[in-house]
Amino acid sequence: MIISDKEFGEVIVRRNALSSGVKFSISTSGRLSMSVPKYTSDFLAKRFLNSNREVIREKLPIKNPSEQRARDYQKKVLMKKAREYLPYRLEYYAKLYGYSYEKCRLSHANTRWGSCSSNRTISLNIGLMKVPEPLRDYVILHELAHLNHMDHSRAFWAEVASHDKNYKSHEKKLKMYSPGL
Ligand SMILES: [Zn+2]
């Protein structure tokens, strides 16, 4: 359920069989999110929200409603761009260097640019659409190299270097950007 709150904007209410109390946190979109026990009514959820205003105001960095909406919009645009680009770029490099992967997933985690799992799924962050192309390509080549080395060993870095000789400076420059919105 979503509560439209005058002060906090849209508040996400998650009913959780495992939670015994009310817990407030910030969702990736910057919205306030509250986790409540499974059978909590809407009425009760709103009451919890009202009785915790002071604490929430002090402790949680909630984006205001217009910022929340701006982020939604930004994410949508980025997702559309990413969908039309990243899977094809990945495929291009995989073919070029003879890698085979199972699946390409698009993510919007706040912390990582990409990942490669043992079932050969490569995840790429849609935030890559905001960084310069050489850095974007570096992340793709980095994840592809993980198909052969599931670690950051010397052999791994040697493989990355064989596709991107400037990988060190790309890795460093990437730190100036954040994958989140
Ligand atoms: Zn890595």
**Proportion of residues in helical segments:** 40-55%
- Low-pLDDT regions: none
Estimate the global geometry from the Cα principal axes: elongated
| Ends distance | 23 Å
CATH class designation of the largest domain = Alpha Beta
Question: Which helices and strands, and how do they pair?
Answer:
Blueprint: E1 2-5, E2 9-16, E3 23-26, E4 32-37, H1 42-51, H2 53-59, H3 65-97, E5 103-107, E6 114-116, E7 121-125, H4 133-145, H5 154-163, H6 167-174
Parallel strand pairs: 2-4, 5-7
Antiparallel strand pairs: 1-2, 3-4, 6-7
The structure holds zinc ion.
Residues 142, 146, 152 line the site of zinc ion.
Q: Would you give an account of this structure?
A:
With 181 residues, this protein is of the alpha/beta class. It folds into two domains: 2-63, no CATH class; 73-174, 2-Layer Sandwich (Zincin-like), CATH 3.30.2010.10. 45% of the residues lie in helices and 19% in strands. It contains six helices and seven strands, in the order E-E-E-E-H-H-H-E-E-E-H-H-H. Strands 1-2-4-3 form a four-stranded mixed sheet, sandwiched between helices. Strand 3 and strand 4 form a beta hairpin. The two termini are 23 Å apart. The chain binds zinc ion. Residues 142, 146, 152 line the site of zinc ion (ZN).
